[in-house]
Each structure stands twice: as C-alpha cells, then as structure tokens.
Amino acid sequence: MPDLASFQRDFASALMTDGQAAPSFRSQAFAVYRNTSARGVVEALRASFPTVDMLVGEDMFTQVALDFRRDQPPAGPVLSDYGADFAGYLARQPWTCELPYLADVARLDWLWLESFLAPDEPTMPRELASTPRIALHAATRFAWLPTPAMTIWQAHRDPWEMGQLDPDWIAEGALFTRAGGCVSAELIDAGFHSLLLACTAPAPVPEVVAAVAAAFPQSHFPQLLNRGVASGALVIL
Amino acid sequence: MVPTAGLSFKPIHFEQAMACPAAGLWFEVHAENYMVDGGPRLAMLDALRKRFPLSIHGVGLSLAGVDQPDREHLGRLRQLTERFEPFLLSEHLAWSRYGDVSFPDLLPFPRTNEALETIVRNIDITQSALNRQILIENPSLYMKLEGHEWPESLFLGELVKRTGCGLLIDVNNVFVSANNLGFNPISYLDALPRGVIGEIHLAGHSEDPLMGRGLLIDSHDSPISGEVWKLYDWLLARCGADRPPTLIERDNDIPAFGVLMAERDKAAAMMAGQRVVVHA
Question: What pLDDT is attached to residue B256?
Fold first, then answer.
C-alpha cells in the first residue's frame, strides 16, 4: 500500500500525461479528473487571453493552451495569476513567425488583466509633499511594441472595426488605465510613452521633464503631463 | 435576518441580486476568484456584502495534500475573511497540489490513518491561522481506490471530533459518489455525526459521454434532480430543528436569475417545513 505522498505523486504525474500512465490510471473514471484539470487550465487561459483566442480560433487556442500547460503548469490555485509568460512562450514558438503580432497581442491581453485586478488607489486625498512627484496610478500598465498589435487588439474589442483592419506595419504604444472603475485602453505615441517610462518610479517634476526632453526634444511637456493626469495614468504625490 | 437558502454569486446577475427582496437570501463565492489586489470584481463583492450575508468557499487549499497549506494562500484567505466577514467559510476533503504543480480540480486519496493525521494537521493549521471554524465538504468520487481504512462518513466524523471543524454536506456529491461507487446514499448520510452540518449544497450532475448513467459527473450545469431533492428532504428531516443554510450551486450553463431563484425558493420552503412535492 503506497503512502499518501507516493499516491499523490503518481496520481499527479498521471494527470499530466496523455494515455501513457500506469494501468490504474487508464480508466474512464480517471479520465474525469484528467479532463477536468486540463479543461480548468485551458479555460482560465482563454479567459485571460480573449484576443489571442479570437485570433487563432477556439480549437487552436485549446491546443496551444495544453502545450503551454505541459511546459509551465500552474503553481497555485489562483488562476488569474497564471499565464504571465504566455506571451513569451508564444514568441518562442516557431509557428508564430506566420503571426508576428500574436505574442504582442498576448502581452496586451495580460496588461489589460493586470490593470483590471490592480490595487485601488487610496480614496483619501494625499497631502502634497513639499517636493511634488509624479507617479504611475496603481492600475496603469503600458508597453511599446514592435508590431501594430494595439491596433489589432483594439479592433477585436469592437466588431464593427474588424472589416477595415489593415494596419500600417509600424511599432505602437499601448496604455491601460483604470481611473474610473473600468479599464480604458488607448494607442499612445512614443513621446507619451517616454513620459510614462520616466514615471515608473515616483520622480520629482524636474527629473521627469529632463528625461522626456532628452528622448523627445520637440515634445510639449505641459501638454503631455495634462494628458497623463486626465487619462488617469499618472498621479501627483 | 437568518440566512436560509442562497445562490452561487454570478457577476452577470449582480443587478438582479441587489434588487432581490427575498428574505433569508445569501450568496457564496469561490475564494480564489477574489484573491486579487483590487478592481471592479472586489468592488462588486463589497456592494453585495453590504446587502447580503456572504459565504466564502475555497477550492485550492489542498487540505488532503501531503504538504501543509500554503502560507501565502492562507494569508490571502485571511485577508478575504477579514474584509468580507463571511458567515460561513468552507473547503474540501480533497487535495489539488503536489510539489510545484497545482490542479484546478478536487482529487481523491485513500482514506488511511496517515491521511487522517495529515488532514487533521492541515485543518488545525488553517483554523488557527484564520481564527475561525472551517466547514469541510464531502467530495464527488469517480474511482474505486484501494487501501481505504475508513468509510467516508466516519472519516468526516473523526475530523470533526479531532479538530472542531464543521461539515458542508453536498447532497449531489453523495448521490454521484453513491451511484459511481455502488453504496447506499441514505446509509452514508445516516452515519454522519449529528449537529455538525453547517451548510448544505445542492447541485446538478450529468452523465459521462462514454459510460452514461454508470459514471455521473458533478458538473454543476443543470437543475437539481428529483433524486437529489428527495435525499435533501431526508437529510433535513434528520437534521431536525437544525436548518443548515442551503446553497443552490450552479457554476456552468448559467440560466436566468429567476430560474435559480425558483430552485432557491423551493429549498427555502422545504427548510421552513412546508410540504413541497418532490418528483423522482
């Protein structure tokens, strides 16, 4: 009679294999556990990466998700934590050379989810420090992508846009904010992206001005800052 | 208002739930869905909690696992209980993690004395960390395992005796397990200790595509069957004056709110001792 640890080790191992398990794990009854565990992981990934699912279709997404699960099974039971490296995994698959924007779209789905679940900003107004600093709102997420993935991502959020989808093949910036409760998504340019990057850690205003001016000497800082605060991306501490 | 019969909370039903005037209504959520840092999901639960009693039902603590409950997971569970002050907190007689790999399912084990000691230890750690009682739910079983040293009802009774935990009896799980493993569900229910059932679950099941009625699956995707209503009726009579709060547990193929409320109202009527016709 195997001890509890040996039983669980063998059972867990059999759940991850596909029909190559020991005879005691080949029954239809065992298949219920194997199918439920696999389906739970696949559906969690589908919920976290809805745009990738739309792009590759349900059957292909299921297969890719099962492959990812074999490569990186969940380490814990909170499934909204699972999939941080799904975009990286996609980028490493040879077949995605035919869909060069796919990994970037996955990255955007993940950033949306991070914004959706991020901490809430404290509701009490802060006392302004004697040296005000600019910081990112707790739910701000942004990225600069080598492909027009943000245009593709946004089009799939709005079915009426899909018919006209023919983006210029250029790099794009993406911003997700959650100032008003729901996540807002927008395409951003390199100048605005450089402002967000300069605020990754809270920084005094002169430092941020200098960083943005160094990257984009032609940029109009007050306008960029206004936009940052109005969009909910930035807070003044 | 004393909680009577409740529903699994589904965000798509939020507005209808908040407007629902039913006395004694309460809601249950899966703990792991709310182990997030912020955002609309938690805000919605805050609003729901201001209006109704809340039950938190964990699925990932892996109490039957050889490893102790994960400390970070316990910490997140404690944060949830402190924020939402649930009137019930429950987990499962199952494991879901081995080493570094976690499975989104409730997995079986041979009910040995070693397993009993392991689960007693894990429940003690949990109740101590959370500073409250936890209810343990009976599982749905699909496989006949070798090596059991305890029948399940007595195993649950022993856990109650040694840890002071309570029980969450899922009547559909009893029905499904009894069907799949070939035991009498009434004998199972009759062997449970008295006075320790803190909650009852009622749910739907489906047939395995290959094995049909020979292998029922606890799918939570259909109305409660007549056989399960009959078992619930029997269990209520055995509980006597205790009326454990009862949940209609629907997780898949979610129907309209009104459809769920109809099942909920039937359970509430049965709890109130009203005669409700129960068809097989």
Answer: 97
Judged by DSSP in three states, A4 sits in helix
Q: Which of B38, B100, B103 sits opposite A15 (nearest CB)?
A: B103
Do residues A192 and A143 make contact, with C-beta atoms less than 8 angstroms apart?
no
Please judge whether B102 and A15 are an interchain contact, meaning their C-beta atoms are less than 8 angstroms apart.
no
The per-residue pLDDT for A26 is 83
Alpha carbons B280 and B277: distance in angstroms, whole number: 10
Give yes or no for a contact between A50 and A65, defined as CB atoms under 8 angstroms apart. no
Say whether A1 and B110 touch across the interface (CB within 8 A).
yes
The first and second tokens of residue B7, run together, are 């529903």
φ, ψ of residue B182 to 5 degrees: the values are 75, 45
Cα–Cα distance for residue pair A189/A196, rounded to 1 Å? 11
pTM of the predicted model, to two decimals?
0.94
The ipTM is 0.95
User: Residue B188, SS3?
Assistant: helix
- Cα three-residue angle B31-A77-A153, rounded to 5 degrees: 95
Is residue A129 less than 8 Å (CB to CB) from chain B? Answer: no
| pLDDT above 60 for B280 | no
Q: Which residues pair with B89 in a beta bridge?
A: B56
More confident residue, B205 or A129: B205
Is pLDDT of A88 > 70? yes
